[in-house]
Amino acid sequence: MDELVQYHPDAFIVYVGHNEFYGAMGVSSTEYLGRWRSLIQLYMTMMKSKLCLLVRDGVTTLPELLSHSNPRHDADLMEVMVQNRTIPYHGDDYNRAKQNFEENLRDMASLAAEHRVPLVLCTLTSNIRDQRPFIPLFSESTSDSLRNLWNQTAGEGRSAFQRRDWSQAVESFQHAIALDSMQAEAHFELARCLDTLHDTADAKAEFNDLIRSLCRDQHLILDDVDRAFEERSPDGIVGRNLMLEHLHPNADGYFLLAKTFLNALAENDVLVPKNEWQWDRNLSDERFKEISGVTEFELEAAQYRVFNLTNRWPFKRPGDSKETFHADTKERQLAEQYVQKRIAWSDAHYALADWYRSSGDYDKAIREYSAVSKVVPGYYYPVMLTGDVFRAMKNDRFAELTYRRALAMQASPFIHARLGMLYYDEGNLRKTIEEFEAVFTADTSGSERVDAKARAVAHFFLGVSYGKIGELDKARMNLRSTLELDPHNEDAKRILSQLQPGS
To answer: pLDDT digit string (tens) for 216-264?
Structure first.
């Protein structure tokens, strides 16, 4: 953040706190440097030096070169980053992470105030409804006999839950909590019962309380993301309706997150005074999602990544059965190929668009091409293919406009050829000739090259068009060029013979 202020930003929006334990420099991370925050800050400052980076890379690489152990190539980033798998609630690691988090926020607030940059702090949200505790722990003071009794009582609760005997399940889990209030599993199971019975209560997370308190004390802008997510969730409990797994929002969740950012800026006069926002230009949520470039392919690719993540530690415990991914739709098949790096991202979109076109689902085909255009806005190719879809829909007016938009991006011979075909079908021979002549101009002056088959087609339509407007010499010349490139073109042979003098 000390580097970002040099760019004179309009505001900082800070949504942090989920990586205080297992993220880079987290207290239970493999990259943790110790308990002292000052040491971490010194290390971060030193990493701006190229010499320090060189030494660091050498120190970390040398043991790998000398080691005879086989690294776990199947381990994901989460497994690699975790050093201590268990973090007792209010234990040393927990308290240290919370203290570091608060001091980091205070430093951000001081830096933003020093440079007169508005600071928006966001509360954190997570999947409360569907994510069970990763590794629930007993209290250190709980004896073995009480632990055995807890397991028996919790087991009775699970059995009652399976029988849909909610009152008995509630009673069993409450008994288990009385035996050991630190064991998170019973709290989660009790919450599931109460959720089923629609008997919910509000629980304030300590980290969010800290954020809210800091905003009050230092007069910072609060974006209560967690409350916004709760208001959009059944019974106010955030779950898979807005989250992918334990803490990352899904597409709807990120959309809601962006809206909370916008509202925080607007309501607090950050960019411009509140009354200057032109809300009449706002679009509906559905329209924003429609033009976002997020398609079924993106959603399925995300789900496949989440499937792989949640099918291993810490989401799966030893002995848990592994699930199987069913690529039973075209979208899922391409998503699986993409995540496994067997197909490029843009090629997957093109393949899915082609499949939609062949199925007659033109709107979805256009959305796939638009998704590519969102990422590479100056690239003509997906725009040109969108024009092809309009042609298939027999909407030549939109096709022409789309081809012209693609042509403004790049004078591609392939766009000129498509426009030539469009004008020929409309009977506009002058424009047909203009576009097909441009095919050869673009072929020689641009970076793209037209193959022999495509040049033969262009010459053929030029020959036919020149013949229809009475320019017979040009017609014969182009038809002869067609036959030089495509000797078996019977149509060109027939028309050329009809145009011969004396025919």
So the answer is: 999 999 999 999 999 999 888 888 999 998 889 999 999 999 999 999 9
Q: Is the pTM of this model over 0.85?
A: no
| CB-count burial class (<10 Å; 0-12, 13-18, 19+) for 312 | middle
Contact status, residue 443 vs residue 406, Cβ threshold 8 Å:
no
| Interval 27-75: pLDDT, tens | 555 555 555 566 566 656 655 666 555 555 554 544 544 444 554 555 5
Rounded-to-integer distance, Cα 472 and Cα 449, Å: 28
- Residues, the chain: 503
CA angle 313, 316, 320 (to 5 degrees): 135
- Which of the pair, 322 or 414, is modelled with greater confidence? 414
Q: What angle do CA 424, 427, 433 make, to 5 degrees?
A: 50
User: Is residue 12 within 8 Å of 116, Cβ to Cβ?
Assistant: no
Residue 79: how many other CB atoms lie within 10 Å: 14
**With b meaning 16 or more CB within 10 Å and e meaning fewer, what string describes 393-426?**
beeeeebbebbebbbebbbbbbbbbbbbbbbbee
